[in-house]
Amino acid sequence: MTDDGARQERASELFDKVASAYAGHRPIYPAQVYERIADALATPLDEVFAADIGAGTGIATAVLHACCASVVAVDPADNMLAQLREALPGVDTVQSSGDKLPFSDDSFDLVTYAQALHWTDPERSVPEAMRVLRPGGRLAVWWNVPDFTVGWVSEQRDRLRQAAPRYHAFAGSDLGERLGEAPFGLVAEHHSFRWTRPSSPDRHVANLATQSYVVAMPDDERERFLTDEISYLRATFPDGELDEPYVTALTIAAHPD
Q1: pLDDT for the residue 201
Q2: 28-66 as b/e: b if 16+ CB within 10 A
Q3: What was the pLDDT predicted at 8?
Q4: Residue 216 lies in a domain
Q5: Distance between CA 172 and CA 177 in Å, rounded?
Q6: Whether the model pTM is above 0.90
Q7: What percent of the chain has pLDDT over 70?
């Protein structure tokens, strides 16, 4: 198995452990993401055939299902797809990774990766996306990134760096920026959107507990860390309310007609 294959298998194992919590606590994506994608497409959105790769529990798939002609959800993780099927019984699902898509050439108008491209080998998955796209199609990739300019978010990052050996402040959204560079060299447009999600200390920590670097911690260390985080945030936000601040980074790349 290649290093990239092992990474994807490990990701599937981690996320399968928390699939239900992932479905319940991960944030959605701002409406501007889908608006920019619609603006970029040559085909009206309600006529678009889409593939959502790394679909997980279907956070982005649900929106695409509501506005596109058709969407197929692709993910390597069993339990994540089970959550998606329960929430979206009308959506076709395929268990696979983005590095080798089980679709014919020119199958889709839109290929999306929401919070997922970094789990692939982009030198495989990006050409695969281009292969299954029709001329005039688009590859759209995006990530919700915590807004570290906010004090309490930055302080939590410091605690995570100490507690979680696998922690990374964020390993992913720079991939979107690189789609316009070698070896890809695609014509790409980049957008970012600041937004907040109303939350609470308990809900925020429940979301945090679905992050791969937290799931990978030893059980006793993870439980201790999460308990301490709830206590810290309850003291910081005694009214029980907080806003989770995000910057959503979106890149839309054109099919090289």
Answers
A1: 98
A2: ebbeebbebbbeebebebeebbbbbbbbbbbbbbbbbbe
A3: 63
A4: no
A5: 10
A6: yes
A7: 94
| Number of DSSP helices (H) and strands (E) in the chain, helices first | 11, 7
| CATH number of the CATH domain containing 117 | 3.40.50.150
240 falls within a domain: no
Q: State which residues form the domain around 29.
A: 3-147+169-196+245-254
Question: What CA–CA distance (Å, rounded) separates 86 from 90?
Answer: 9
Angstrom distance (rounded) from CA 61 to CA 34: 11
228 CB neighbour count, 10 Å cutoff: 13
pLDDT at res. 16: 87
Q: Which two tokens stand for residue 116?
A: 């997922």
Domain count for the chain:
1
Count the neighbouring beta carbons within 10 Å of the beta carbon of residue 150. 15
The answer to whether position 155 is within a domain reads no
- What DSSP string runs through 88-136? -TTSEEEE--TTS--S-TT-EEEEEEES-GGGS-HHHHHHHHHHHEEEE
The residues facing 199 across adjacent strands are 242
